[in-house]
Specification:
By secondary structure, this protein is of the alpha/beta class. The protein has one domain: Rossmann fold. The longest helix has 13 residues. The protein is globular, with a radius of gyration of 15 Å. The two termini are 22 Å apart. The model has no long low-confidence stretch (mean pLDDT 92). Its EC number is 3.2.-.-.
Length: 196
Amino acid sequence: MSNSSNKILLITGDFGEDYEYIAPYTMLKALGFEVEVGCPSKLAGDTVASCVHDMNDKYQTVTEWEGHRINLTVTLDEINAEDYIALIVPGGRSCEYLRTYSKVRHIATHFIESNKPIAAICRGPQILLATGLMKGRRMTGNFVVQTEVELAGAEYVKLGHEGVVVDGNLVTAVEWHGMWMWLREFMKVLGIQVTL
């Protein structure tokens, strides 16, 4: 497949969650989708540093280590969101600053208003919430987004580490432990049926 009918956009940035990028990117590429990766203010051919998060009962928050270098394949500032059929937003601390870019909010707005499939995990919902268009939606994510979800007029569904919520075109998950379920539900929204 190589035309715009199978292009999926993945937005990430420095210290986006490593697993939440690698799993959807590799799985969807293996299924024949063209997955393009972009970050605002960076160019195709640049890289971003991912991070690996884990939980430790000794700490109030997650631990964090630098992960892989992620190759950017598109210049996000130049793309047309209409060329893509779906959007993936991995979590990690990158979401905190990615949502401040008007181009990122413009892209997210397109997918929300066009009712195209959207997969967001962990802190990824922060980018969707920054559009002001999530009122009335049901979603989940890392516990740190609960207040933002509720202030936006959306319903935060509190779930365990593997929790996933599907609300129409929107598939959200708590964190990387539940990526298998997040990706399974996202494939259903994409219309992909996997049979063994």
